[in-house]
Amino acid sequence: MLRLPRLRYLRPASPREASTAAADLGGRAMLVAGGTDLYPKLKRRQFDPDTLVGLSHLGELRVVRGDACGGFEVGALITLSDAAAHEALRAAHPGYAEAAGLVSSPPLRNVGTIGGNLCVDTRCNYYDMTYEWRKSIGFCMKKDGDICLVAPSSPRCWAVSSSDTAPVAIALGATALLTGPDGQRELPVAALYRDDGIEYLAKEPFEVLTALRLPPSDGVRSAYVKLRRRGSIDFPIAGAGVALRLEDGIVRWARIVLSGVGSHPVEAKAADEFLAGKGLTEEVTAEAAEVAARPAKPLDNADLAHFWRKRMVRVVVEQAIEKAAARA
Amino acid sequence: MSARRGELRVIGQPLQKVDAAARVTGVAVYADDLNLPRMLHCRILRSPHPHARILSVDASAARRIPGVKAVLTGHDLPIRFGILPVSQDERALEAEKVRYVGDPVAAVAAVDEEIAAAALDAIRVEYEVLEPVMSIEEALREPAHEPIHDRAYTRRPFNVHRQLSYDFGDVEAGFARADHVREDVFFYQGNTHLPMEQHSAVATYIDGRLTLWTSTQVVHYVHRALAKVLELPLNRIRVIGAAHGGGFGGKTDPFAHEIIVSKMAMVSGRPVKCTLTREEVFYAHRGRHPVLMWIKTGVTSEGRITAMHYRSALDGGAYGSYGAASAFYTGTLQTTTYDIPAYRFDSVRVFTNKAPCGPKRGHGTPQGRFGVELHLEKIAHDLGMDPVELKQKNFVKPFTRAVNWLRVTSCGLEECTQKVLDAAGYLGRERREGHGMGFAISSYMSGAGTAIYWNDMAHSEVQLKVDRTGVTAYCGAMDIGQGSDSVLAFVVAEELGLTPADVRLVTADTDTTPVDLGSYSSRVTFMAGNAALEAARKMRNLLVEAVAEKRGLGGDLPADLRDTIEVRDGRIGDFSFEEACVLATARFGALSTTGSYRPPRIGGPFKGSGVGPSPAYSYSACVVDVDADARSGLLTVNRVWIAHDVGRAINPLLVVGQVEGSVYMGLGEALMEEQSYRKGRHKWPSMLEYKSPTFLDTPEIETFIIETVDPEGPYGAKEAGQGPLLPVVPAVAAAVYDALGIWVDEIPITPEKILRALEARQKGQQARYGPKAFPAFDFGQPIRVEPPDPHDMRVGPELEEAFRA
User: Fold this and answer.
1) Degrees (nearest 5) of the Cα angle A139, A144, A147?
2) Does any CB of chain A come closer than 8 Å to the CB of residue B504?
3) Residues of A whose CB is below 8 A from B689
4) pLDDT tens digit sequence for B183-240
5) Minimal CB count within 10 Å: which of A203, B35, B70, B316?
6) What is the Cα–Cα distance from B261 to B242, expressed in whole angstroms?
7) Is the entire prediction scored with pTM above 0.95?
8) How confident is the model over B166-177, as a mean pLDDT?
9) Three-state secondary-structure class, residue A239
C-alpha cells in the first residue's frame, strides 16, 4: 500500500505556539487538523514536509460561540458533521450548514474540519495522483515540475478551488481569524484566496486559521448547490453559494460565489449587481445565472466534460438563487 | 442429477452464508492479513511508458540500499505465461519491451515497504520510447514503429491479436427474404472490476516446497502458471486461496506479483508479501473490453428475425489474457437469447498500449447484449411495433438447438419477461417528456463447457470424509464471496440430513483439495454442486447401507427398501447420524466418497465451437425506470425490476444478493464507469476519480427469482452471478430513448452525451450520440457451418457420432 513518509509530529500548546513552530521550520512544516486532505496527499508525495504541526488537540478551537443576533464564531476544529448539524447555525445560515454537510462522505465529515475545508488544497486530475503516475506523465508545476499539463502553454497553474464551504462563507461576508507568531488578524474570507492553483491561499503558510466569523443572520437568506457525479464522496465540479436579502420581493443585495470553476472561489460580482434592486422573477433569476456563469472557466482537469460543466454553472446558480429565495 | 424425490430441507432455504460471521467480524484472514516471521515486503517497478523498448536495467544502487534483500529483473523470470494456452505472451517482469503504463519491469523485496519503495526509485531503466497505439482504429493500421507484439506470435497484420468469422446457416438467403433490414453501430466503453480488496499474495519457500497464499479466483491455474515459470514440479507447489475480498473476473488470470513473490521467496529464503496498491489494481485490470460493434439484421414485416450479421472489434490492451475467448463471447450467445435462423459473426481483437482486458462479470457478453438489444429496439420502432413485442416474437425456446449448435435446455425468458412487465407496469407506464422505462433480456452460461486447457478430466471434484468426528467436504472451489463454500455445505447437508453448520469445509488448497477449475464462467454452483451431490449421495448410501444391515435388512439392499430409511434431521433411520457413522465405519472402514462433474460435449462440429457451450443457460429480463432532464442531461435511475431464471435457487438469499450486485455493477457501467486514457496513461487510476456508484446512487431493486428446474443442474440450479448484469445496461439506454426520444449508442451514458444527442436532434441530425462507423477490416472467408436440427438435443458421444455420420 501507499505509505506515509517518515514524519515528526508536534503537539503545540496553543495556536500561537503552533504558528511559531511552523514559522521556524519554514517549508519543512505543515499544519494539520483533521488530515483528510493532507494525509492522502502525503501518501502520494504531493507534499514533502518532514514535520507536521498538529492542531486537532487544541480544544479552544473546537467551540461555536455566538448566535443568530450577534453572529457566530465557529472554531476551526469544528468538524464538518458538527457544523452541518449545529441547530442555531443551520437556522441562521442554512446555506453554510448545507455546504458543510455536502463535503465528501459521512466518515470524512466526521473527521474533516471547517478550517480544513476553507484551506483545502486546489485540485487537478493531473496533480491528485500518485508519485509514480505523476512521474510517468511528467511532473507538473504544482509539484516537482515546471509546466501545466492541462494548459501546457500557460505560465500559471490551473488547479481548481474545491472548497464547498468557502463560496457561502464569502457570500455571507464571513471573516477568518488567523493567528501568527506575532498575534492575531482578521480578514474577509474572500481575501483568503488568490487566483493561482499553487499559491491559492493569501495567508502565510504558518498562520493558523483559528475560527470563521459569520455575521448575524439579519434576514439574510443563503443556499449552496453542489454539482458532482455521485450523491456522496465527490468534490464539487461546479457549485454555487448564494446569500441575498429580499425586501418586499425586491433583492436588496445578493452575492453569488462559485466553487469548482477556477483556482479560487469565483465571485460573480456582475450578477450581484444585476440582481440588486430587481424582483426575483424566473427571467431575472435565469439572466442572473447566465451572467454569474460567465467568469467560470472549467478546464479538462476535473470530472466530466468541461463543456458540460461550464454549461451546468448556470443551472446550479439558478437553483441556488431559487433555493435561497425560498428560505424564510 | 435433477431434483430429487421428496421434500428439500436445506436447498431453497434463505440460510445464512457459512462464512458470514467471520466476514462481518473481521476474523476472515485475507492474504494481506498474513504476517509471517521474517517476512519481506515486495514492491514492483512498472513501466512509465505506454510503449517502449527496454535498453538496460541497472539495479545496482537499489541492491546496495540497507534493508533490501532481493532484487529481480526480467532476466530472472524469462519464461512466458498466460491464462490461455494460445496466449502465452506475458512475463512476470518484462526484459525487452514494455507495452503499457504499469507493465512490470523489476521488483524489490525489503524488510519494510518504505525501503522497497525507495529502492524502486533507485533502479535505473533506460527506455527507447515507441509510438503508442491507443485505439481500435489505430491498431487496425500499419503501426508507426513496430507492432506491440511480434508478428511471429500474432501471425496477423497490424496489431491484430485474434480474428474470426463464421457463417451459421444461409445468411444471404435470410437477408433476401427480409422485409426490413437495418444497420447500427454501437460502442461499449471498457471498465474495471473495482474489487474492495486489492490483489495480494504471500509466498514461502522451505525444503524445496513453495507455498503461496493469494487472492485469486483460480488456484488451479495459478498453480500451473507457477510450475511453468518457476520450473518446479506441481507437487512442490501449494497454492492456497486466502479469504477473498472480491474478484468479478479481475483475479482470474495468474498475475506477475504472484510469480514474483514466489521467486523472491526462493531467492531470499524468507517469506515475501506483495499487496498491490489501488493504482496497480487498475493496471492489473483484465476488465471489460472496449468493444465497437456493427449489427445488421433482417426482419419480416411481422418482426421475425430472418438473419443477423454481427461484427465486433475488441480493444484488448497489451496482452492476450482471456481475449481469444472474449472475442467469441461478444457474439456467440446472441443465439441462446434470440432465435436467429441465420447468423454471420465476425470479430477482431486488437492489441493496444493499455492495461490488458479480460473477463469481467458477463465476460464479453454485456457488450453484445447492449448492441443487439438497442438494435432490436430500433428495428421495432422502424416497424411501428412495441419493442417488447418484437423481442418476444424472437425469444429462444426451451429445449432447442441454436443455429451455431449451442444447446438450450430450460429457459424461463417468457416467465421472466411477464414478471417484470407486470411488476413495473411497463405497458401502462406514465408517458411524459423526461420519464421513461426500458426493457431488455439476456442469457448467460452456467459454466463453460470446455476447460481452459484441453483435457478429458472432470472440471470439478469433491471428496467427502465422514468419521466419528463428523463430516468434511474437500473441494478446490474458491469462494470469492459468491457463496460457493455455502453451496457445498448446503448440498452435503441436504443429502446427509444435516444442517450446513454440521459440514466442515476445506476448500481452495491445492495440497489438500481435489481440483476445481475455479470461480469463473459462473460454473461453481453447477459443477462443484453436481460433484458434491454425487459424493454426498454415495456417502448417504454407505450410511444407509450400514443402518439397514444393523436393522437386519442386510446385503444388497433394493432401492425401494433403502428409501424406507429416512435421512433427515440428523438421523438415519432409527439411528443418530453419529451412530450411523460408527456403524458405517465399522462396516466399511474409513469412509470417503468422491464426486466429480464434467460437462457433456455440446458444441458443434467446427473449429472454435468450444467457446459458448454450457450445460445450461440462465435467463434474465429487466425493466429500468428513469428520469432524464433535457436541460442538464442528468439521468436518474428510479427503480429496477429484474427477474432471473436461476433454474432453482439453492439459497434465495444468495441468488438475490448476486442479482442485486449484478444490477449495481451494470448500472455503474451504464452510467459512469470508464477505463479511460489520456496521453497514453490511465486517466484516473484511483477510487476517487474512477466513478462507481455509491449506495446513494443505487435505486430500489426488485428481484424476482424464476425457477425452471434445469434437468442437469444440481437440484435444477443454474447460474446467478453474471447473467443478471447483462440486461441492465441496454435497459437504461432504452429508457433514455423512452424518456427523451434520443439514442445514446455508447456507454457510459453521461449527461454530456445526452445533451449532444439532443443538440443533434435540434440541428435536424440523427437524434443520437454514438460511434459513426465500424473500421474497415478484412475478416477473410467465413467458416461455413451447417446448422443443426433445432430439435436435436443430443450431447456427448451421441452427438459426436452424429458429426461422423
Assistant:
1) 55
2) no
3) 125, 128, 303
4) 999 999 999 999 999 999 999 999 999 999 999 999 999 999 999 999 999 999 999 9
5) B35
6) 15
7) yes
8) 98
9) strand
